[in-house]
Amino acid sequence: MKNRAFVLTTVALVLALTTAAWAHSPVKLTGYVVDVMCAADHTKDNPSDAAKFAAGHTKECALMPECVRQGYGIFADGKWYPFDDNGNKLAKAAFEKTSKKDNIKMTVEGKIHGDRLLVESITEE
Q1: How many CB atoms within 10 Å of residue 43?
Q2: Quick check: is 17 in a domain?
Q3: Domain-located, residue 19
Q4: Fewest beta carbons less than 10 Å away: which of 32, 64, 106, 114?
Q5: Is the distance from CB of 122 to CB of 108 less than 8 angstroms?
Q6: Domain containing residue 50
Q7: pLDDT tens digits, residue range 79-98?
Q8: 43 Cβ partners below 8 Å, 6+ apart?
Q9: Is residue 20 part of a domain?
Q10: Beta-carbon neighbour count of residue 54 at 10 Å?
Q11: DSSP 3-state helix, strand, coil percentages of the chain (rounded to 5)?
């Protein structure tokens, strides 16, 4: 009975660790960073419309106080990935640094956790 409990506990632990490791697998996404407020209006529609909108999203809009407060995410590979707090800070800094007004393509590296992207770095393309 003790062996069976030990085996079941070990299997459960291995599955939990495997799931946790997979849930945090590294990703590198290239696309358009957009504030959550603007993205919300476009993610519910046609994904191709959302990608087109994201490419034209402006630096000026992304740095508006309400947009900064809502946070950011990236449209990449036909999907929307909202950022964690660190990603929001890095995105704001990237927008402040760029000389482009729109069509600001960025590469974001991090890990996916649930419905959020845990951002480690953002670089402009």
Answers
A1: 19
A2: no
A3: no
A4: 114
A5: yes
A6: 25-124
A7: 889 999 999 999 999 999 99
A8: 50, 80
A9: no
A10: 25
A11: 50, 30, 20
